[in-house]
Amino acid sequence: MNTTSGLGASVRAVMRRAIKAYRDCPDMVAYLQRHLDRMNEPLRVAIAGQVKAGKSTLLNALVGEEIAATDAGECTRAVTWYRAAETPRVTLHPSDAPPRQLPIDRRDGALRMDLGTDRVDRVVVDWPSQHLRTMTLIDTPGLQSISAEISARTAGFLSGDEEPAEADAVIYLMRHLHSSNVRFLESFYDRGIARATPVNTIAVLSRADEIGAGRVDALMSARRIARRYGADEKLRSLCQTVVPVSGLLAQAGRTMRQAEFAAFLELVRARRSDVEAALLSADRFARYDGLEPDVCVDLLHRFGLSGVRLAVTLVRQGFDGAPKLAAELVRRSGLDELREVLTAQFTARAELLKARSALLALDVVLSRAVRPETQALVVEVERIVAGAHEFAELRLLSSLRLGSVKLPADVLTEAERLLGGLGVGSTTRLGLGVHATMAEQRNAALDALSRWRRRLENPLSSLALTDASRIVIRSCEGLLAEFAD
Amino acid sequence: MSVPAAIEVVDLALQAALAYGRADFGARLRQTRRRLTEDGVRVLVVGEFKQGKSHLVNALLNASVCPIDDDIATTVPTIVRYGEEPAAVVVHEYGGEAPAESKPVPVDRLADYVCDPGNRRGVSYAEVGVPRTLLAGGLVVVDTPSVGGLASMRGAATIAALPLADAVVFVSDAGSEFTAPELDFLRHAAQVCPNIICALTKIDLYPHWRRIAEIDRRHLANAELEAEIVPVSSTLRLHAVRTNDHMLNTESGFPVLIGHLRDRIAGQAGQLACRAAAQDVLAVTEQLTTTMRAQLSAYQGGDASAELIRELELAQLRADRLRERSARWQQTLSDGIADLISDIEYDLRDRMRQIGRDAEREIDQADPVAMEDQFAAWLQQQVSGAASANFVWAMDRGRWLADQVADHFAEDGDKVLPDLRDVDFARMTGSIDAIVMPRNEKLKLGNKLILGMRGGYGGTLMFGMAGTLVGMALLNPFSIAAGLLLGGRTVREERKRLVQRRQMEAKSAVRRHLDDVVFQLGKESRDMLREVQRTLRNHFTGHAEELQRSVNDSLQAAQNALRANKEECKRAIADLQAELARIAALEDRARDLTAGPQLVLSEVAR
Is pLDDT of B141 > 80? Predict the structure, then answer.
């Protein structure tokens, strides 16, 4: 499946031709150039969701540093980009004024930005972090905010009516499901190229530690709920998968300090009934006299009440070192799972998703400014879209997910897997373990190939199945070609 | 003073009215009595998905009446009231004329009925009785399914139920400040139900709840909503009750909430009910006294007869004025209702037309087959949102009209407003059917083949015939290729044509549906407004008739008195004085009813 680079090259080539064709029109050139440059940058992933869904917290957890400010009240007021760079820098882009630099002012690690009174288009944070190298993360203000202007700005950013969206992929955070969540996901549908693909969206059931009144087993409940959502027809047609994540726990785990571990240890050593009484409510814990008051407040702020409860339980169970406890907290938070899904769905497909964004942009230009000399480009774009097997895969995947192509249940699961619905790695596609040998993979691929050939040739197969079979067979052949190298 | 005392006073007044042969007061007093005995104080617990509504009800009553789950949400309303023994009933309503059917179920199995995703059993609501002192005073707590946004079906149904409630407990957790849909809902709710308490739940879990409460207070102030924010924790309350821990109970915030419900809401509702009852009783006694005073002065004769004549003249004047006014208030009422009906109908049509335009735009953008379900749901939401907004407006205007009509009677000192609660508002938004989308015809393979062949046949034949001229067979490669090409084109065109046809059909289905909705809702809102009119007319006609009757009685008494002899006079005077004393005592008791509650309030303040 190394054809993606080929796809990237042909998309770049057609973009360059388009720039040449429109050279007399500086606006178009700038627009296309921006999208061409974008193909060389890391994938842009937006983190979106309702007010207080925990977007900034999750961003911090993914970066592994508390750089985005978080607060009990509504906090993020402007679309903020976090990009990898050598030196830290914060740039403010007002809507109607040239960009200007902001001083870097960190309080407790978090960046404080004074946005002033201008209407802010966005803030770009350049930050030296290896976790930002593969993905540029975009933090967005909450939807459904009482401040209607903020909400509108986010909605506009994510699903501009005409222009292709600024982000290549979206992590959509939701607390418990809610009709307006679904409506927003629907609006993220795009037109053209890979029409209406749920493939560039992942839903995250956020603040998972708070489900069920913050019991220690809250995350298990969250997993169950996420599974139910994942199977929900409506949601399936809107996003790839639903992952439960507790951003707070993940953030705290990834940035845990020795002093915090010491505090937990002290809690475990104190009289159990005292500690249990203190852990009844956040207020009581803040008043707990076995620790310094600042320490209690700090623990609550960083871990949340359910996080403190979980950490104490884990230390009791024998996670007796700060690194061990931190790792377990991160594991339980669901962050690892999210990272895996991100790698499988976004990073491995980055080139394809970026190519898609670029073609969308080109499509807009070509359909708006029709010229005789651009007709050839229209044909070329159509050729790329029709010819690239990756797009065919994406299209079929999305129609399977949308339910517009109906297959029997067992066939459906296999088709989705082979098409890369669970991840584009060869072992994932074949449903084998990570350590499967080349020979095993080859055999599995051959098996799948013959199975799907039979489906194609079976005169009783429905039209939908034979159409799907053709594409799946090409995916299988692609896999086999990889092993032949 | 309490509701039972009020009932007693109303009973006495009823006896007195019957004893004096004024059966016309009977109906009014009986209605007053019914309102006192039957109307509990209804508290609706509403809020968004998963904010802890059921948990709050359980903690409030210290009983697990409403099932709670991490995931599954309540799907039907649960009405919790006082009962000697714990018992639960589920009620199926079939709509229209069919009677509701209720079925007892074990309390611990209630979850199967009220937390059933999709509500397969078709339960309309559940009723639970529990022996709790908090409920003994007539407090009724209703746990509702989540609102899910004002525009949803549920939201519309909840709004429609609000006018029947004495208070609303709006539940929102301390995890985040109010969202825009929540505030929107509060704004609408405040228009139809003046008593709103915002319960900030789960404060045990969120260390920053004080900040959130403060932010929420600011939001409420900015929206100019008068609602108290009460921070509570259901978990702490249940734990406190289990372990009998008073400190913890205080920390849970529930004593404050209960205080609000008991003193302010129940107290206020009781106070209102008592005041209304006292007013009704006083209106009756006043007229009885007027008549008897007139009789008394007639019998006493002498100096009093000059007074009597003046009073009689006055009474006559009042009766005349009343008749005059009766024409005026009837005019106000019928004009007002006519205006109201046309305004409300216009508003409804206007909203529907807007929805229709939006819907056509949506349809133009895509093939209706691809979005059928979502589209139907979207349309349903839009329609119910518009219907509920229209309904709130109708309610508002209805109240205003009642006030206008009552102004005509204000000269008599007692502006008695009718209770519009007897009008069945809930009926209005309950019955919007879902749209029936046209059965879409898809291009099947068979059709495609035939179509393709039709086009292809022509192509083959044409080129084949041309070919024969230059000496080729009818079926030559060129003619076949031409056939395939033309065939393909025909199929494509047919597909495009089908999409266009589907769009046309979808549009006309939407138009038909909206027409139906306007027709159906228009009929219902007209019926509702007519009922408002009837209620108002009966109320004010009754009032006018009573006044008229009192005047007539006085006149009659005066004439009798002039005819009576000395002995009869003496006896009649003694009788009347005794009666007047009795009625004065009744009046005192009725006045006590209105004075009582202030005493209670000052006690609370202390």
Answer: yes
N-term to C-term CA, chain A: 11
In a domain, B520, yes or no: no
- As a whole number of Å, the end-to-end CA separation of chain B is 18
Residue in chain A nearest B373 by alpha carbon: A234
pLDDT at A409 over 60: yes
pTM of the model: 0.68
Residue ending a domain, among B219, B252, B285, is: B252
pLDDT at A84 over 70: yes
B216: domain CATH number is: 3.40.50.300
Provide, as residue numbers in chain A, all residues whose Cβ is less than 8 Å from the Cβ of B179.
Answer: 50-51, 144-146
**Burial, B403: exposed, middle or buried (Cβ in 10 Å; 0-12, 13-18, 19+)?**
exposed
Q: Does A223 touch chain B (CB under 8 A)?
A: no
pLDDT score of A101 more than 70 = yes
Name which residue leads in pLDDT, A280 or A239.
A280
ipTM value of the model?
0.73
Chain A residue with CA closest to B378: the answer is A183
Tell me what pLDDT residue A148 has: 56
Topology (CATH level 3) of domain A3-79+132-246+335-347: Rossmann fold (3.40.50)
**CB-CB contact of B177 with B229 (8 Å):** no
Q: Does A52 touch chain B (CB under 8 A)?
A: yes
Partner B contacted by A228 (CB < 8 A): yes
DSSP string spanning B375-436? Answer: HHHHHHHHHHHHHHHHHHHHHHHHHHHHHHHHHTTGGGS------GGGS-GGGGGGGPPPP-
SS in 3 state form for B236-276? HHHHHHHHCCHHHHHHCCHHHHHHHHHHHHHHHHHHHHHHH
CB < 8 Å to A284, chain B: 251
Residue B20 inside a domain? The answer is no
Alpha carbon of B104 to those of B89, B107, B126, B127, B170: distances in Å?
4, 9, 10, 9, 29
- Residue B147's contacts (CB-CB under 8 Å, 6 or more residues apart) are B46, B47, B48, B154, B155, B158, B185
The pLDDT-based confidence of A264 (bands split at 50, 70, 90) is very high
A72 CB near a chain B CB, below 8 Å? Answer: yes
Q: Is residue B113 in some structural domain?
A: yes
Separation CA B468–CA B476 (nearest Å): 9
- pLDDT at residue A225 is higher than 90: no
Say if residues A403 and A233 touch (Cβ distance below 8 Å): yes
Mean per-residue pLDDT, B294-323? 69
Q: Identify each DSSP E strand in B93-243 by its residue range.
A: 101-105, 125-130, 139-143, 167-173, 196-201, 228-231
Give the whole-angstrom CA distance, residue B346 versus residue B344.
Answer: 5
Show the tokens assigned to A397. 């995947």
Q: Is B220 on the interface with A (CB under 8 A)?
A: no
**Lowest mean pLDDT across A138-142, A243-247, A402-406, B64-68:** A402-406
Q: Can you give the three-state secondary structure of B323-342, one letter per residue? A: HHHHHHHHHHHHHHHHHHHH
Choose the final residue of a domain: B506, B523, B558: B506
Within 8 A of B204 by CB-CB distance, chain A residues are 213-214, 280-283, 305
- Cα A293 to Cα A284, A286, A297, A298, A322, distances in angstroms: 11, 6, 6, 9, 21
Rounded mean pLDDT of chain A?
Answer: 81
Amino acid sitting at position A312: V
d(Cα B85, Cα B355) in Å, to the nearest integer? Answer: 50
Is the pLDDT score of A245 beyond 80?
Answer: yes
User: Measured between beta carbons, which residues in chain A are less than 8 angstroms from residue B149?
Assistant: 178-180
For residue A242, the SS3 value is strand
Mean pLDDT of chain B: 75
Do the Cβ atoms of B211 and A281 come within 8 Å?
Answer: no
* Mean per-residue pLDDT, B23-46: 76
On chain A, the residues whose CB falls within 8 A of the CB of B201 are none
Longest dimension (CA), chain A: 83
